[in-house]
Amino acid sequence: MAVDQLSIVFGALADPTRRAILTRLTSGDATVAELAAPFRMSQPAISRHLKVLEQAGLISRSRRATARLSHLEAEPLREVTGWLTRYQRFWDESHERLDELLASLQSTPDDVPAPDEASGPEDRTKGEST
Amino acid sequence: MSKTQITAEPGVPLIVMECEFDAPRDLVFRAYIEPDLMARWVGPRYLTTTVDRWEARDGGRWRFVQQAPDGSEYGFHGVFHGDASPQETVRTFEFEGVPGHVALETLTMTELEGGRTRVRTLSCFQAVQDRDAAIASGMESGVREGEERLRELLASLQG
Fold first, then answer.
1. With left for phi above 0 and alpha for psi between -120 and 50, is residue B143 left, alpha or beta?
2. A57–chain B nearest CA distance, Å
C-alpha cells in the first residue's frame, strides 16, 4: 500500500466511533440505523463517519430496498496489519538476538563482572532465621 | 525475553517500543551503547552491521551501515544528546535512504525484580507520514494476515 493511502486509512481509524463501526461490521453488514443505535449520535452524523470509512476503502455500501447497507472491506486493514507485522518481526528478531547476546555475556565471566548475588532460583529452602 | 510491544497510534508521529530482558540493567545498557555489542543484534540475522562512527557522548555522532547478502546497503546516522545513561539515552536517528527525515529517540531502561530490565524506546518523528514511512521501509516482506489478526487489530484499537 502506498504511504499516502496508509495515511488515509490511519486517518479513518483515528476516530473511536469509526473503529466501533468497523468492529460492528466484522459480525455482518448493517444499515445506518443499526450502526447508529449504540451511539448517542444522529444518523447524518453516522453517515458522515461512513463516508470517511468509504473513502479510505475500509467499507463499501450497497442498497437493500430503501436502506443502505455498509460492508466491511478487509483488504486495507489487512495491509495495515501486515505493515505493522513486518516492523514487529524486524524488532522481534533483533531482540531475540540481543537476548542471546545478553545470555552469552552473562555466561562469560571474563567478559563481564559476575552478578553480586550468588543465590539463584535453587535457593528456595526455608531459611531458619533466629 | 518478553514479546516486543510496539505501539504506533494513528494520527500521532510516535512509535513506542517496549521489551523486557532477563539481564541486569548495566549489561543491557552496554549491549545498546557499546558499538561492538550493538552491531551483534540490531536487525535481522541476514543483515551484517558495520559501525562507522560511534561517539556516545553529548554532541557525539554515530553511524552504522547494514548490508544484505545481495550487497544492498542501508546507512543510518545521528547525534547523541546529553550523556548516555541507563536512565536515559537521547539521540537523533536518520535513515540515509530518506535524508532529511529525522527522528528523536529516547531510550529508558528500568530495573525490574529478579535482575530483569525493561527497555522502552520512544521515537518521535517530524510528521505522521515520516513515522509511517519509517515503519514501511526496509522491512522484510510479510505474510498475508488472516481474519483472526484483523479481529485482533480491531479489538486492540477499541482499547
1. beta
2. 15
Higher pLDDT, B52 or A123: B52
Q: Complex ipTM above 0.90?
A: no
Walk across the sheet containing A67-72 and list its strands: A30-31, A67-72, A59-64
A119: region left, alpha or beta (phi > 0 left; psi from -120 to 50 alpha)? beta
CB contact under 8 A, A92 and B3: yes
Residue type, position B83, single letter: D
- Here the cell at position B102 is 529525522
Three-class SS of residue B91? strand
The greatest distance separating any two alpha carbons of chain B, rounded to the nearest whole angstrom, comes to 48
Q: How far is B88 from chain A (nearest CA, A)?
A: 19
Residue with cell 536518520: B94
| H or E segment to which residue A63 belongs | strand A59-64
Name residues whose C-beta falls within 8 Å of residue B111's C-beta, 6 or more positions apart in sequence.
Answer: B24, B25, B117
A113 Cβ neighbours under 8 A, 6+ residues apart: none
CA distances from B2 to A32, A95, A103, B123 (A): 43, 9, 14, 20
State the Cα–Cα distance between residues B105 and A67, nearest whole angstrom.
Answer: 50
Confidence (pLDDT) at B31: 92
User: Which residue of chain A is at minimal alpha-carbon distance from B129?
Assistant: A7
| pLDDT tens readout for residues B85-141 | 999 999 999 988 888 989 999 999 999 999 999 999 999 999 988 888 777 764 432
